[in-house]
Specification:
The protein is α/β, with parallel strands linked by helices. About 45% of the residues lie in helices and about 15% in strands. The protein is built from 15 helices and eleven strands. Strands 1-7-6-5-4-2-3 form a seven-stranded mixed beta sheet, with helices on both faces. Strand 4, helix 7 and strand 5 form a beta-alpha-beta unit.
Amino acid sequence: MSETLRNHWLRTAWQALLEQDGPPASLHDGPHWEEDFDALHQPVSDWAVALRSRLASVLGGDPRQYWLGQRASRLRQQLMELMHPEARLLLAQPEAPFHIQRLQGLGIPVDVAPPSLQAADVDQLLEHWQGKTAVVWLQSPSPLTGHAWTVEAVSALCEHLRAFSLVVVDLSLEDPGNQGRWQACMDRQDNLMLLREFDSGWGLPGLQLAALQAPEAWIAALQGIWPEQQASRALQRAALDVFTHENLRSAASSRQALMQRGRALCERWAGNPRVLQVRLHQAPFLLLQVAQPVALQSVIQRCSNENLALPADWLGEAGWFRLPLANERLCQAVDDWLQSSEARETVLP
């Protein structure tokens, strides 16, 4: 079935290209890091082969199911560029507007499910599906709301769309120690793709590395059109060192520590007169609603360049912020502001 879907959705130009001996040099992205100029003409380096084997050992599946890239957003863009021009992308969760605008600017038709969609509501999501939907994009959990698609819901969705669409689940924020059930789901569903972006949660802060795990027919197409980019030797060593069973357990332990910190902050902030609501999500992050969002935004801007304020239409009310628990300095600054006399005085009648 995966080959049938590929033949149905893959652009004619790419189909013809894959029937040749390989992509022309102009289609190669070239080395990503300056120190790899000596490896410019190597289509796939030995480290990529070794890393695919390591990922298969740690996460599951077959090494031939993995394709390496930079960022999750970049992999999504490249996947849609494989499709026919009329192929549509259905985003099942709210996303930052600039991500959607970027895709639309590239000529990719994008549909977005309403913010009220629940992560387990397959029937409601199918109401927004149409015949030209080539890819349904899920995030589990969502980086904005924390809502997570269950394995059972994704499996049911794949069954409904088996002959029509690919289903991609971005697991970048999923618990590193909870991969087995997703692998079992992929083994059953041949229109399912799993995407993971590896960064601070895996001990690779600031390094751009992602992997798409998909049926071999799609991986063969991606490798034939966009071979993996060369990576710096530092990233090669770090990636091979990180993706071991020992470090997988370490990453899961670090995540548990973050969740414990989140629970402690929830208890500490729950009775604060400045706090309207606070929620802990498994991403892991806190969703915080305060009475004076402008003042909190000023505090956040002094610690981070990222805009963490969430639009009211995503959560139904204004004044919500998403606080990544991995950013200890930011969480401490917010806690200091909430405990300060200035913060308490602003809510006195």
